[in-house]
């Protein structure tokens, strides 16, 4: 019991540190991820307005950190299952906001892949476990855990594929030409497939998580269409088709879901 209590306290503290680092990382670096992306343009980078999503992400991550730090949430089985993944994702994102503006592209991209792995693991973990199967999630767990995790996971999923192209441009391996458009289409296709699989898999959990995830991905894809409309018709079409596919993954019925689960997840 003492070991569990120490681990719970450590998880709560690690989450707070991760959130502080995430929110303050950009200020420490003296730059921004959006600015560096704009300085290394690719055919898959979203329009500038898309990056305002970080405002809600930061606000929700702060709310999550406060909620999970409450003494009565220390032994919350949901937070025990996903909390370390979330703490790792937040801390990694804070470090990335220091590495990326410093134009350490390869290190930043490798770190981003790890962030995505942690965030998606947390998202999928929302629908696992005996407690969830028996009673589902409470109001606070849905809005202060599932929603922040889903939104964050969706945005970094989109970012990791955009980041591949940005890394290649930033390191000098990609400099325009037809290959850039082909690469853009490949990245969009792979990204949409991955996001669609995650959405379908996450739909065993509460809607706040998987809807927020899909919403963040759709936000990114629409911003790609808006930004690349005049630059590349092929990547624009690929992004537009991606919007349709992710929306289908979100809305299409799940054959394996029973009526009881469908009613519970809709609440």
From TrEMBL:
This is Tryptophan-rich sensory protein. The keyword Ribosomal protein does not apply. Keywords: Membrane, Transmembrane, Transmembrane helix. PANTHER family: SI:CH211-161H7.5-RELATED (PTHR33802), XK-RELATED PROTEIN (PTHR33802:SF1). The chain crosses the membrane at residues 49-70, 82-99, 111-132, 144-169, 181-199, 211-229, 235-254.
């Amino acid at each position: 019991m003492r070991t569990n209590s120490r681990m719970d306290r450590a998880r709560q503290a690690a989450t707070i540190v991760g959130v502080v680092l995430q929110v303050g990382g950009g200020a420490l670096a003296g730059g921004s991820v959006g600015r560096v992306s704009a300085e290394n343009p690719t055919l898959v980078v979203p329009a500038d307005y898309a990056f305002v999503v970080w405002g809600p992400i930061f606000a929700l991550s702060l709310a999550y950190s406060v909620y999970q730090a409450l003494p009565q949430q220390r032994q919350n089985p949901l937070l025990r299952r996903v909390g370390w993944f979330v703490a790792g994702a937040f801390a990694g994102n804070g470090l990335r906001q220091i590495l990326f503006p410093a134009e350490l592209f390869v290190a930043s991209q490798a770190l981003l892949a790890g962030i995505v792995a942690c965030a998606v693991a947390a998202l999928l973990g929302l629908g696992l476990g005996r407690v969830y199967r028996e009673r589902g999630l409470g109001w606070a767990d849905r809005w202060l855990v599932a929603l922040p995790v889903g939104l964050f996971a969706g945005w970094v999923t989109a970012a990791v594929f955009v980041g591949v192209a940005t890394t290649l441009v930033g390191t000098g391996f990609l400099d325009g030409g037809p290959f850039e458009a082909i690469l853009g289409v490949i990245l969009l296709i792979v990204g949409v497939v991955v996001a669609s699989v995650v959405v379908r898999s996450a739909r065993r959990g509460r809607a706040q998580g998987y809807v927020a995830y899909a919403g963040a991905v759709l936000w990114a894809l629409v911003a790609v269409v808006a930004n690349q409309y005049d630059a590349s018709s092929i990547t624009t079409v690929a992004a537009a088709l991606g919007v349709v596919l992710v929306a289908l993954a979100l809305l299409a019925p799940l054959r394996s879901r029973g009526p009881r689960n469908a009613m519970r997840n809709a609440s």
